[in-house]
Structure formats: C-alpha cells, structure tokens
From TrEMBL:
This is Uncharacterized protein. InterPro entries: Acb3. It comes from the Bacteria.
Length: 231
C-alpha cells in the first residue's frame, strides 16, 4: 500500500479500473493521508469507448470509477466511466445545504462611513448604478517606475449567512461573515506586469482592517505595491 500526505483534508473512498497508463486500485483519503492499494486488473475493467478515424475503428480505454468523496462542502458520487467529457462522465454531486454560505448583502459607504446604498445585491444594474454614484477618494500617485496616475477608492461591504434551503435556521446560531473592502480603480495600468505586455493592473481591492479609514487602507496598499502618493 502506498501512503502520501493529503494537505487539503479531502475525504473519499473509491475504486478505479485504471486505463492504459494506471493500474486498477483502491483509493482512500482520510486523516490527511492518501492510501492507495493496487488491485488485480480483473476486479474492475476500464471502459472501452468505440472510436473511428476515417475507415479505421478502434477503442480508447478510460478509467471507470465507483466511489464517494467530500471536498470542503461538496459531496460527489462516481458511478462509472470518467472520460473527461461532462456529457459522458458518470458523476453526480451537490453542495451540502447546511455548510453553504449565502451572499445576502452588498452595501456601499460614503467616505465619512455613512451608508450610501444599503443593498445592491439584487441585480447588476443596481450595483453598477450605486458604484458610479458613490463618493470616491482620489489620490495622485507615482508607480514604482515614476509613472504618474490617479487612483480612486470607495468602500464596499458584503455579508454572507450560513445555511440555505431548509437550513436557514442555522443563521440564528452562526455569526455572519462580513467583509469590508477598499475597491480601487487606476487611471492607467500599473505594476510590474505592464513591462511584459500585459497592460498592468487597472483595478484592485483589499480587505480593510477594523476601524481603518480609506486613506489609511490605501497607504497600506501603496506600501505593499511599490506606490508613492504625491499629494
């Protein structure tokens, strides 16, 4: 039996037929380890897909897999051939409703911390209209190579709640996830990528720290990205 590290912590148990490159095997992931045991070929034969090229007929061996896996919050079942084609793969899966986080709010703030638009998550049009009208701070800046540009910044806050469908009651007991970010737009492409024909970064965002002002958050961003403020 072969044992390897499983840093992602996924859980599964499956049996694979293998194909023309890999042998038949039993695979188990548990306790942050991968356990693989090679099996006799007769235990599970590969799926042989009929193919034709011009007048020549032939078959291609594909892995046949039966098993169940849990990766983070996604439960998946394999029950046959795995060709890499979603129309042919025998696989079903779904997210566990008690572990899902539903996005419920996107709030835009004025520069003084008051609410500009309470919730723009209902449609892209609402969000885009609010984003264009929200007050923005402007900073005259200089990139690492001396190029001058203008950065604009505004505050956006998003909220997620635990549980969907019949499990929304979990929200009574689980704290919401709230992320406040400083959204940035630049008048020119900036950063070292612009030297490699990629145009540079024209927009970005960072998570704001508790009680951090727009200017303080932007200065922290500048320190991390080789930018100086000229005003």
């Amino acid at each position: 039996m072969k044992i390897e590290s499983n840093p992602h912590g996924s859980l599964w148990i499956s049996i694979h037929s293998g194909d023309d490159e890999y042998p038949c095997r039993l695979s188990i992931a548990a306790f942050r380890r991968y356990f693989t045991q090679q099996l006799p070929a007769w235990v599970l034969r590969p799926y042989q897909k009929p193919c034709q090229y011009q007048d020549r007929k032939f078959t291609i061996d594909y892995d046949r897999c039966y098993g169940v896996s849990l990766t983070e919050n996604y439960l998946s079942f394999d029950y046959g051939c795995q060709t890499g084609d979603s129309n042919e793969d025998k696989q079903k899966g779904f997210f566990l409703p008690w572990g899902e986080w539903e996005h419920i709010r996107c709030t835009l703030y004025n520069l003084d911390g008051s609410i500009h638009t309470a919730d723009t998550s209902q449609s892209f049009e609402d969000w885009d209209k609010a984003r264009n009208s929200v007050p923005k701070a402007e900073f005259n800046c200089r990139d690492y190579d001396g190029m001058e540009f203008v950065a604009t910044a505004y505050i956006e806050e998003r909220e997620w709640r635990r549980g969907v469908s019949w499990f929304k009651w979990l929200r009574l007991f689980v704290k919401p996830k709230i992320r406040r970010s400083l959204d940035l737009e630049f008048s020119k492409g900036i950063g070292r990528e612009k030297d490699y024909g990629k145009g540079g970064t024209t927009c970005h965002g960072i998570e704001m720290q508790p009680d951090e002002s727009v200017e303080a958050a932007f200065r922290r961003y500048c320190t991390e990205h080789e930018i100086s403020i000229t005003q």
